[in-house]
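To whoever picks this up:

The nightly regression suite flagged Sulfatase N-terminal domain-containing protein as changed. Nothing in the input moved, so I suspect the structure step. Input below, exactly as stored in the fixture:
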Amino acid sequence: MCSFSLVLFLLAFSAPLVSSANSPNIILFVIDDLGWNDTSYQGSDIQTPNIDKLAEEGIRLKQYYVQPLCSPSRSALLAGKYPYHLGLAHGVITNGHPYGLGLNETTIADHLKKGGYSTHAVGKWDLGMHKWEYTPTYRGFDTFYGYYDADEDYYTHKVGGYLDFRNNTDPVKDEDGTYSTFLFTKAIEDAINAKSDSPFFIYGAYQSVHSPLEAPDTYLEKCHSPYPNRKIFCGMMLALDEGISNITSLLQTKGLLDDTIIILTTDNGGQTALGSSNWPLRGNKATVFEGGVRGISFVWSTKLRKSNYDNNAMMHITD
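Regenerated output under the current build:
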């Protein structure tokens, strides 16, 4: 099964509209633990105007399904196979686990790199770290800026007492105290600014909005939920929404927006015990109820732009 069938469809659709020497750029945002009711275009109390604008101008995938946990979903997304066929359906890969996405698997980045794309991974990996061969720069990505594990502190970038933050394979030791959403937005902007004659593929796997619940005070001041966890979660969403706005604004400024496809997906349902909401779906992350496996996703491109268009065809993250 081809891991980038959706991308192929979009490329085929847009091919007559762009020069053959300039294939569309692709940005694939993966938002960690984003619940069904966590964006305002889905009816949330949290205002996400920049994500909303992309969703309202694009194609919203309303019958779109993911896996109930992050490593299974990410393996399905990057390799294009159900995680049961990848040996990764059972849980989350964390430090000390001696396995990962099989080295015989071809990733989206491998495919696109062969097609002339520059490829960049930013944010969370969570597909193996016990050997270098399992890490992003050995799996088709030219560059990587992020962390290998499943979660960590947003400011110290540590998990279990150790630093897990990399620029390619080198540890990043000088960003203690800087909020990761800011760092990952800047890394995506840097990849855009570095564009040469080749189109780019950016895998923007934000840490947000996974636990731990942490957000800068400037965003918390704009959140008024009476529930403490929801208030912090709101601040995390506002920072994320602003980051996506900064990225789309940069694309516009550089004249790249019309030649860029933007896809956004969650990796699983929201964790309701930690501020997320899947209302009105039953269940949450780590369950196979709708709240755990029915995901938010949309595709945006000026070549596909529609107004408030919902696609109700059944679709899975392997697609």
